Amino acid sequence: MSDILIQNVCKTFSTKEGEVQALKNVNLSIGSGDIFGIIGMSGAGKSTLVRCMNFLEVPSEGQVLIDGKSLGDFSEKELRKEREKIGMIFQHFNLLMQKNVLENVCFPLYIQGKKKPEARKKALELLEIVGLADKANAYPAQLSGGQKQRVAIARALASDPQILLCDEATSALDPQTTSSILELLKDINQKFQITIVIITHQMAVVREICTHVAIMKDGEVKEQGLVAEIFNHPKSQVAKELISRDTGADVEHVVTKPEIQSGEKIRIVFSENSAFEPVIANLVLIFHEPVNILKADTKNVGGVAKGEMILQFMKDSSNVAEMKEYLKEHGLEIGEAD
Ligand SMILES: Nc1ncnc2c1ncn2[C@@H]1O[C@H](COP(=O)(O)OP(=O)(O)OP(=O)(O)O)[C@@H](O)[C@H]1O
C-alpha cells in the first residue's frame, strides 16, 4: 500500500503558440488503499496530473511524494526503481500487437531481469486473476476491448505495484464491459491492497468504484473529498454539472433486487425552487435501489419543475429516511400518499 501527496504542483508547457498552464497549484492527498477518482472535462489537466504522479511528466513547480519521499529527489536510476511500484493502464491498452497475450504480460518481467520460465509462471498466474488464462496464446488483435484491458491490467500487475494509475481505462468500452473492468479493479484493490487512481470524464465510473474524488477544471482542483459527500452536497459548479450529466448510461449497474415489492409510498411536490434535473434518476443511481413511479404529473417550466409525483420505495428498504432527506435537499416537498 502506498500514499501519494501532491503539493503545490504546477505544470507549464511551452508551445509555438505560447505557454500552456496545464496544472495550477494542485494539492491532493491520496491515501493508502484508496480508489481515488480524478474527473474533469477534456483539457482539464487530468492526464498531465496523473503523469506527474510517476514523473513521466516532471512538474514545473511543487512536489510529488510517494510514501513521504519526494520523486524530485530521486536519481534517474532510483526513479526507474520507484516506477516499478507504480503500474499504469491506458484507454487504448498499449499492448504489443506482434506478441501474444502471455508475452505481453511477461514483458515487464523480462525488463526486470526475470528468466523466461519464472516470468511465464507469474504471467500465467496473473492471467488467471484477470480471467484470461485461456487466451494466453492469443494475439491482441483476436481479443475484445475488455479482454485487451484485462491483459493490460495483468501486465501492470506484473511488477507487484503498490499503486495503479488508470488513464481513461474504460472510456473505449461499452457500459457492460466497463462495469466488469471496474469490478476487476475493485477486486484487485481489495486483494492486493493497491492504491488505485482513476482518471475519467465519466461520473458514473467515479460513482461505481471510487472512494474519493477530485474534480478538475482548467488545470485546477475545484473540489475534492469523499464520493458520497460530493454526490450529496456538490459545491462547485463543475461538480453539479458533472453529476447532472450522469445518466447512468456509461456503466451498466446490476441491480440485485430488480423487483419492487410494495413498500412505503410518498407524494413529492415539485415546488418553486425545484430545478428540473433528473432528481429521481440520481436518487436511484446514488442509493443503488429502484423506486416505483406510480404517478407523475410534472412539467418543465423554464428549467423549474412543477407538479407532483407518487413514489414507492422497496419493501423493507433501509434507505427510506436517507432517500427522503435527499429529495428534500433537492428542493422537493414530501407528503403522505393515499
Ligand atoms: N505535451 C504537451 N505540450 C503542450 N501542451 C500540452 C501537453 N500536454 C498537455 N497539454 C495541454 O495541457 C492541457 C491539459 O491537458 P491534459 O491532457 O492533461 O488534459 P485532460 O484533462 O487529460 O484532457 P483529455 O480528457 O482530453 O485527455 C491541455 O490544454 C493540453 O492541450
Automatic annotation (TrEMBL):
Entry-linked InterPro entries: AAA+_ATPase, ABC_transporter-like_ATP-bd, ABC_transporter-like_CS, ACT-like_dom_sf, MetN_ABC, MetN_ABC_transporter-like, NIL_domain, P-loop_NTPase
Domain ABC transporter: 4-243
Claim: ATP-binding is one of the keywords in the record: yes
Classification via Pfam families: ABC_tran, NIL
Keyword annotations from UniProtKB, A to Z: Amino-acid transport, ATP-binding, Cell membrane, Membrane, Nucleotide-binding, Translocase, Transport
Superkingdom assignment: Bacteria
GO molecular function: ATP binding
Protein name: ATP-binding cassette domain-containing protein
Lineage: Bacteria, Bacillati, Bacillota, Clostridia, Lachnospirales
